[in-house]
Write a structure and sequence with these properties.
Largest sheet: 7 strands, antiparallel
CATH architecture of the largest domain: Alpha-Beta Complex
Number of domains: 2
Number of helices: 12
Shape: elongated
CATH topology of the largest domain: Cathepsin B, Chain A
Distance between the termini: 62 Å
CATH class of the largest domain: Alpha Beta
Amino acid sequence: MAALGLVLLLSGCSTLSPALRPGDGLPAQAYVATTFFPQEIHHCGPAALATVLGASGVDTTPEALAPQVYLPGREGSLQLELVAAARGTGRIAYVLEPVLEHALREVAAGRPVLVLQNLGLSWYPRWHYAVLIGYDLEARSVTLHSGTERDYVTALATFDRTWARAGRWALLVLPPEQLPATARELPYVGAAAALERTAPDDAELAYRAALQRWPASLAALLGLGNARYAQGNLTGAEQAYAAAVAAHPESAAAHNNHAHVLARLGRKAEALQAARRAVELGGDTLPVARRTLQELE
């Protein structure tokens, strides 16, 4: 059924993405068995979100999600609401790069992918959310949970055209301890950061997962310190910030955060040294570093 999408990139292009062939770790076929929720009118957003949340281990239904994501005045759901609702369950909501191969690689890794399609025209859109659950490169087809149809098979080229007309927007929903197969460092850490305020324990799991793949990631080390600090784990936060300083000695933000938690731990001499170093390094964080130093002095 139709749904409203907040689309930043609309395209009338009907050209298929570069030809995909098995290889480089991409199997010829893949299929993910998931719960199917037939959607009510205009409720493809809640139905698709319930499907991917269920695959990530969250027990929910379209009816439970509709008040959070369905906008009656628009007769549909916006992408921002879907992302926010997924994060509200403590899950990582990771927007994939608009590349067909990335969506297929996630399916091959056993993850269903929520996709936005324009089943109309670029100038007369008909927005629709579906869940990509399978593909067959030899048959040039994909399998979707779409509308009232379970395991709907359509041509790969047809899917790619309708997906392209909606900006190739795709959402992956995962438990915080799991990384997307196609994850990139900064977008993933940004998705983890969105959990810090409401679910810092889940954010910590996500940062730790990120550090398994990118051990020296400054953003992940700082995020890990922030998440631990939010949980009241000052010793753990200090360890994370110290690791950030060791890996990135020229990072003013790392020194500043380290100074802050050292002060909370009563280690004032070390805190002053870290704060002074943050001010010396300057950069965009200089005003914050100066305030930290003034407070300590």
